[in-house]
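Lecture 7 notes: from sequence to structure.
We start with the chain below.
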Amino acid sequence: MEIEKKFLIKDLPDLSKYEYIDIEQGYLSTNPVIRIRKKNDKYVLTYKGSGLMVREEIEAALTKEAYYHLLEKIDGRPITKRRYLIPYESYTIELDVFSGHKEGLIMAEVEFPTVEEADSFTPPAWFGKEVTEDSRYHNSNMIMENP
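Predicted structure tokens for the same chain:
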């Protein structure tokens, strides 16, 4: 089960001190969500159930060859982003700086162990508007649209 909140960013922190992962991903289906993802040199197939803040998530490893074979079959355009991993309280903020057709979009996601923790979360001051309930900001909906 995945429990996460999403936020736009109003003031970008200094990112030079944080680790990051380069991500490329595409969607074989958006209903249900079936995603392929390249994270640096790791490849994953993900199924995500319906929902906005809380939804089922199942992952399976892919080979590099399988990833590139499936990449030719995705809907829309691939999403590319650099994900910074920023410690905050007992959480890790995943700050995504998008490139490609989403250049200029910067979003943060925070995952939680329970709905109660998600509901009581106070974001840092540099976060902007919460967009968890705005489906335009789900990556599976950004393969064509421009939020």
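Points to note: The beta strands are 2-9, 19-30, 33-39, 42-48, 54-55, 57-61, 75-88, 91-99, 106-111, 127-130. The radius of gyration is 15 Å.
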